[in-house]
Amino acid sequence: MTTQRLNGLIRKLESGGIATLSFCPPTVESAIAFSTTQYDGIMIECEHQPWDPLTLRDAFQYLLNRRAIAASGSIAPTVTPIVRIPANGGEMSQWLAKQALDLGAYGIVWPHVSTVEQAQSAVAACRYPTKVSHPLHHPFGQRGDGPTNAARYWGLTQQEYYKKADVWPLNPEGEILAILMVEDLEGVSNLRDILKETPGIGAIMIGEGDLSQELGVPRQYNHPELLSAMAEIRAIGKQYNVPVAHPHVTSENAERVYNEGYRLLVCGPSRSYPALDKVRELAGVQPAA
């Protein structure tokens, strides 16, 4: 077994590809269902679901498919789990990220990040502290030290885990994705400063539902005002070479979303996976069986 790149979402982004994932309820049954899919990862949804670390821990375990891992020759999970936590960026609730990471999450999705201060707090929560002289010191890590369960889940010793438990792409060896959601006009107006002043952001995810509310066109996903705001976010992400994620990819909008240049596509979790199949077709990959 090798310890090459463990985070499948990072692996896909590093190669210049498009990463696919889906929302997943924090349940054992859902984790089992997703364990044999063709998604690169899943986003376990805890923003609008109850926060229960013990259930989250069990979902992580049941997501592992031992036959697939053995066949791959790597300890990397075949489907990479990241977690969307309940707190908005402005709440600075770093303890939620700490608990998810300590259970073994490979990334944290932070809802409603609107300022540089909030962005730096989010990234800092995903990092362990470093010396001032460390070349990757900023943002200064604020994650508490409790790696036992995460190292076990990743299949590493604690010292091996420390080397990999940092944010990508700031640390090229890092296996943790810090994904910040831009969901309001304040976040859009501050996005250039956020990306310029906050190294370590793995991706920006557009919260088109909340953004559409503020624009006065709730869930009118094809409304010109919403599409214009989303295009602005994409352009800023491209300017700073930060991938942008689309949160609601369906078989109907997959071709448009793909062509617009989103790098992470969150597909609908239908049991037939039509959106995923459409994305794989557009990418020239044989549709999932």
Describe this structure as you would to a colleague:
By secondary structure, this protein is an alpha/beta fold. It has a single domain, classed as Alpha-Beta Barrel (TIM Barrel), CATH 3.20.20.60. It is 41% helix and 14% strand. It is built from 13 helices and eight strands. It has an eight-stranded parallel barrel, surrounded by nine helices. The protein is globular, with a radius of gyration of 18 Å.
Write the layout of secondary structure elements.
Elements: H1 8-14, E1 19-24, H2 28-34, E2 41-45, H3 53-63, H4 66-72, E3 80-84, H5 94-103, E4 107-110, H6 116-125, H7 148-154, H8 158-164, E5 177-182, H9 185-197, E6 203-206, H10 208-214, H11 224-239, E7 244-249, H12 254-260, E8 264-267, H13 274-282
Parallel strand pairs: 1-2, 1-8, 2-3, 3-4, 4-5, 5-6, 6-7, 7-8
Helix pairs in contact: 2-3, 6-9, 9-11
Short description:
This protein is α/β, with parallel strands linked by helices and 289 residues long.
Shape: globular
Total number of distinct structural domains:
1
String of helices and strands: HEHEHHEHEHHHEHEHHEHEH
Q: Which class best fits the helix and strand makeup?
A: alpha/beta
Radius of gyration using CA atoms only: 18 Å
The first-level CATH class is given as: Alpha Beta
Which strand order do you get reading across the main beta sheet? Answer: 1-2-3-4-5-6-7-8
CATH H-tier superfamily: Phosphoenolpyruvate-binding domains
Classify the fold: give the CATH topology.
Answer: TIM Barrel
User: Helicity range of the residues?
Assistant: 40-55%
- DSSP helical segment count: 13
Main beta sheet: 8 strands, parallel, barrel
Indicate the proportion of strand residues.
Answer: 5-15%
Mean pLDDT metric: 94
| Head-to-tail CA distance between termini | 27 Å
Low-confidence stretches: none
CATH architecture: Alpha-Beta Barrel
According to DSSP, the number of beta strands is 8
